[in-house]
Amino acid sequence: MTQAHTESVLELMNRFQEPVVRPWLSELAMPPGSRGLDVGCGMGLYALWLASVVGPKGGVVAIDPSSERLAEAQVTFKDAPEAAWITLRQGSGTAIDEADQHVDWVWCSDVLHHIDEAVRAVTEFKRVTRPGGTIYIKESQVLPALLLPGHLDLERQLQRADVEFQKREAGEHSFQERRQRTYATLHEAGLHDIRVETRIVQRQAPLDEATKRYIQTAIFDRTWGPRIREQLSEAEWELRCTLCESDSPHAIVKRRDYYCLYPVTLFSAHV
Predict the structure, then answer these.
(1) How many CB atoms lie within 10 A of CB 46?
(2) Which of the listed residues 57, 145, 194, 262 has the most CB atoms within 10 Å of its CB?
(3) Shortest CA distance to 165 belongs to which of 25, 42, 1?
(4) Res 248: pLDDT
(5) How many whole angstroms separate alpha carbon 124 and alpha carbon 118?
(6) Which candidate, 136, 44, 62, places its Cα nearest to that of 98?
(7) How far is residue 162 from each of residues 124, 143, 157, measured CA to CA in Å?
(8) What is the β-pairing status of strands 103-109 and 129-140?
(9) Is the bond preceding residue 31 a cis peptide, omega within 30 degrees?
(10) Position 191 pLDDT exceeds 60
């Protein structure tokens, strides 16, 4: 899969979650004028949203190890007034180029489960955060989403197949399992005042375009696409095609009674 395709999937996910996550950001301990760090900023949408929360008297340092993603972030920032108080920098979450106790908060969205040395990364988050500051780790689908209502067995099989596929990249523990270990990771890094909150992205027919594009492109075509075919029986694959293919006359997202429930979990810890 190309980098451009990866980025498009990430943007689709962020846009899908935006109506739930953006208001949530304004409730967090990120007061106007505060300075924070966005670890693994990707295309930069969250950096913009975070910057809008802290305002022009605050600041966001957005880091990502990928030069390609940073270039995409530059495009995202174009013509956005919030870009004036964002510093974009190439960098790793396990070796952050910031002084000790330098930021008021750290934000890491859907990235920690991709870092093999997750405890080391969170230890770095802790090092750069001032006493009394907060570390936020946002992960999507710590709990599995409901995307095929009324087809429980098939959805479970698709989820299991995806977990097995993920292990090719993630190793012993799938990305799903890594997400579920976030609390333990924070604890192992020496953080103790840990809180967990989950909110649900709820959508129902008629679906908005952002929802349709995310579910169809990112989930049905990619996550549950040909890459997991070998994990499914002939009957399971046939039913998957009937429900998930965009050109199927029985595509589930075209139904007037369609709905989905998609959990987003925020782990937070005070330093």
Answers:
(1) 24
(2) 262
(3) 1
(4) 98
(5) 10
(6) 62
(7) 31, 14, 9
(8) parallel
(9) no
(10) yes
Q: Coil, helix or strand for 263? A: strand
- Compute the distance between CA of residue 148 and CA of residue 180 in angstroms, rounded to an integer: 22
Contact (Cβ atoms closer than 8 angstroms) between residue 142 and residue 182: yes
User: Which amino acid does the sequence have at 68?
Assistant: E
Instruction: Please name the amino acid found at residue 118.
Output: A
Alpha carbon distance 6, 4 (integer Å): 5
- Indicate whether 189 pLDDT > 70: yes
As given in the structure block, the two tokens for residue 237 are: 């694959």
- The greatest distance separating any two alpha carbons of the chain, rounded to the nearest whole angstrom, comes to 59
Mean pLDDT of 163-184: 90
Higher-confidence residue of 224 and 29: namely 224
Q: Please report which residue ranges of the chain form alpha helices under DSSP H.
A: 3-25, 45-54, 67-77, 118-128, 152-170, 175-180, 182-188, 209-213, 234-244
pLDDT tens readout for residues 240-270: 999 999 999 999 999 999 999 999 999 999 9
Q: What is the mean pLDDT of residues 93-121?
A: 96
Q: Kindly calculate the radius of gyration of the chain based on its CA atoms and give it in whole angstroms.
A: 19
Q: Is residue 242 helix, strand or coil?
A: helix
Amino acid occupying residue 178: R
Choose among 196, 203, 176, 180: nearest CA to 18.
Answer: 203
Work out the number of other CB atoms within 10 angstroms of the CB of residue 133: 23
Q: How confident is the model at residue 4 (pLDDT cuts 50, 70, 90)?
A: very low
DSSP string covering 165-232: HHHHHH-SS-HHHHHHTHHHHHHHTT--SEEEEEEEEEEESSPPHHHHHIIIIIIIIIITSGGGGGGS
pLDDT on residue 192: 86
Residue 130 has phi, psi (to 5 degrees) of -65, 150
